[in-house]
């Protein structure tokens, strides 16, 4: 085991401010008026489907792209604005990309020392060695990146990004190149290192679970805009609309109309605050919120499919008046299988009601 140095890297974390930031590639608008404040030391995940503008936003923050309107500030310094533009190398940021972008012809030590050109060579190498040792990679200092596993290469890339003690660390899909078994451990390790370094951190991901694990807050993006910003709990519990709810969790969508402040559906009625009389609406019901009991109580249903999935089994249940079978995730119930009748009950804590928005 390598000796872990006692010296802790302290970076002066930056506050990042985006004010009305726009960016277009030709006629494609990729950022449409982004306002965002990220506090020093905070980890924020930019989350959203492919093409929503996450990478563009990261590139704007890094200075790889220049906004067509709006301002970007790091602490009180305007780094991009109508009359100012600070190039990436002068922004004091650390970058980690999906493919690690390590130089194949440099040793791991030289890869990490690369960003320390301003220091005398011996000092740069000593700093780089300490950074590698913090990542428990000291013994690979003289090797080349190709001899390392994907997870180890990712840690070298992280060491290289943090060795200059940047005020802000920007990571673009940093774990997507790793296989799913490695991803969890590298993610946890990265989180520890980033927290230790104290840097402000922006992470791009399209994976909601990753965003919930990594982010103090999540900025949910859609078509060049941030549609919701909040803690993982807030986004999961109170998604702003139906597409946001869909993004975080597989859901059953049961349509109905609002009557007397409640949404009437074949599964019962649910509170529909803020929705007017007669409004078409949708009850979004999480699969773990559907309970299957003996027939005779609740809504009458029939199991059409049952799959053993380990911890929670998957059932598909048809209910009269609902187009698609309900997806149900429950602990397996002995003897309950396809063809059996059930009574369907809904846990109202797992139901969200939204105005219908179309498919
Ligand atoms: N260099 C470019 N030239 C032209 N259009 C681009 C360029 N880069 C991105 N775009 C477009 O800008 C929009 C936003 O792209 P961006 O890569 O920021 O999205 P993303 O959310 O990061 O997507 P992904 O998760 O697939 O990487 C998309 O419509 C994309 O096609």
Automatic annotation (TrEMBL):
<dbReference type="InterPro" id="IPR003593">
    <property type="entry name" value="AAA+_ATPase"/>
</dbReference>
<dbReference type="GO" id="GO:0005524">
    <property type="term" value="F:ATP binding"/>
</dbReference>
<protein>
    <submittedName>
        <fullName>ABC transporter ATP-binding protein</fullName>
    </submittedName>
</protein>
<keyword id="KW-0547">Nucleotide-binding</keyword>
<dbReference type="InterPro" id="IPR013611">
    <property type="entry name" value="Transp-assoc_OB_typ2"/>
</dbReference>
<feature type="domain" description="ABC transporter">
    <location>
        <begin position="16"/>
        <end position="248"/>
    </location>
</feature>
<keyword id="KW-0408">Iron</keyword>
<dbReference type="InterPro" id="IPR050093">
    <property type="entry name" value="ABC_SmlMolc_Importer"/>
</dbReference>
<keyword id="KW-0813">Transport</keyword>
<dbReference type="InterPro" id="IPR003439">
    <property type="entry name" value="ABC_transporter-like_ATP-bd"/>
</dbReference>
<keyword id="KW-0472">Membrane</keyword>
<keyword id="KW-0067">ATP-binding</keyword>
<keyword id="KW-1003">Cell membrane</keyword>
<comment type="similarity">
    <text>Belongs to the ABC transporter superfamily.</text>
</comment>
<keyword id="KW-0410">Iron transport</keyword>
<dbReference type="InterPro" id="IPR017871">
    <property type="entry name" value="ABC_transporter-like_CS"/>
</dbReference>
<dbReference type="Pfam" id="PF08402">
    <property type="entry name" value="TOBE_2"/>
</dbReference>
<dbReference type="Pfam" id="PF00005">
    <property type="entry name" value="ABC_tran"/>
</dbReference>
<dbReference type="InterPro" id="IPR015853">
    <property type="entry name" value="ABC_transpr_FbpC"/>
</dbReference>
<dbReference type="InterPro" id="IPR008995">
    <property type="entry name" value="Mo/tungstate-bd_C_term_dom"/>
</dbReference>
<dbReference type="InterPro" id="IPR027417">
    <property type="entry name" value="P-loop_NTPase"/>
</dbReference>
<keyword id="KW-0406">Ion transport</keyword>
């Amino acid at each position: 085991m390598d000796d872990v140095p006692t010296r802790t890297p302290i970076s002066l974390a930056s506050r990042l401010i985006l004010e009305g930031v726009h960016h277009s590639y030709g006629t494609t608008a990729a950022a449409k008026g982004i306002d965002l404040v990220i506090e020093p030391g905070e980890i924020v995940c930019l989350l959203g489907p492919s093409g929503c503008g996450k990478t563009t936003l990261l590139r704007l923050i890094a200075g790889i792209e220049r906004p067509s309107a709006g301002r970007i500030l790091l602490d009180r310094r305007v780094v991009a604005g109508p009359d100012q533009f600070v190039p990436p190398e002068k922004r004091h940021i650390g970058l980690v990309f999906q493919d690690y972008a390590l130089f194949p012809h440099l040793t791991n030590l030289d890869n990490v020392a690369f960003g320390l050109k301003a220091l005398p060579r011996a000092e740069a190498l000593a700093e780089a060695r300490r950074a590698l040792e913090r990542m428990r990679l000291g013994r690979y200092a003289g090797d080349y990146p190709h001899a390392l596993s994907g997870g180890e290469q990712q840690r070298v890339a992280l060491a290289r990004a943090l060795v200059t003690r940047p005020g802000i660390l920007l990571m673009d899909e940093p774990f997507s190149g790793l296989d799913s078994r490695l991803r969890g451990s590298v993610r946890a390790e990265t989180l520890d290192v980033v927290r230790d370094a104290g840097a402000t951190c922006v992470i791009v991901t399209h994976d909601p679970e990753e965003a919930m694990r990594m982010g103090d807050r999540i900025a949910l993006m859609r078509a060049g805009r941030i549609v919701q910003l909040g803690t993982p709990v807030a986004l999961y519990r109170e998604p702003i609309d139906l597409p946001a709810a869909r993004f975080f969790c597989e859901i059953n969508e049961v349509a109905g109309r609002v009557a007397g402040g409640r949404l009437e559906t074949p599964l019962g009625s649910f509170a529909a605050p803020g929705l007017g009389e007669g409004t078409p609406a949708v009850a979004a019901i999480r699969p773990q919120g559907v309970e299957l009991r003996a027939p005779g109580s609740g809504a009458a249903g029939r199991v059409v499919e049952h799959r053993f999935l380990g911890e929670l089994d998957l059932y598909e249940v048809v209910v009269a008046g609902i187009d698609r079978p309900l997806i149900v995730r429950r602990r397996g119930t002995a003897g309950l299988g396809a063809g059996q009748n059930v009574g369907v009950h809904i846990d109202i804590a797992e139901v969200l009601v939204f105005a219908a928005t179309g498919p």
